[in-house]
Amino acid sequence: MICMIFFSIWESLYPDSIPMDNVLYGMISLLFILVGNLMPKIKSNFFMGIQTPLVMSYIWYRQEVEK
């Protein structure tokens, strides 16, 4: 966030001195790398992802009733 503010101020003071499209692509790439490294370390719970109570009850139903 601070980097984007810095680059925005720099670009407003010195137009066309930094290729902003390359900076933006690089920052988005870094964001994906960081999120990709953090996702395996996050524990699954009932509020994120596919494991909602409705889905869990359906999975239980399929395991118990549809044997």
Give the percentage of residues in beta strands.
Answer: under 5%
| Quaternary organisation of the protein chains | single chain
Class from helix and strand fractions: mainly alpha
Query: Percentage of helical residues?
Result: 55-70%
The Cα radius of gyration reads 22 Å
Poorly predicted regions are none
What is the 3D shape? rod-shaped
Distance from N terminus to C terminus (CA atoms, Å) equals 52 Å
Note the main attributes of this structure.
rod-shaped, mainly alpha
Give the structure's gist in a few sentences:
This protein is mainly α and 67 residues long. It is built from three helices and no strands.
Overview of the molecule:
This protein has 67 residues and is mainly α. Helices cover 64% and strands 0% of the residues. It contains three helices and no strands. The protein has helices spanning 2-13, 20-38, 53-64. The longest helix has 19 residues, at 20-38. The radius of gyration is 22 Å and the shape is rod-shaped. 0% of the residues are buried. The model has no long low-confidence stretch (mean pLDDT 77).
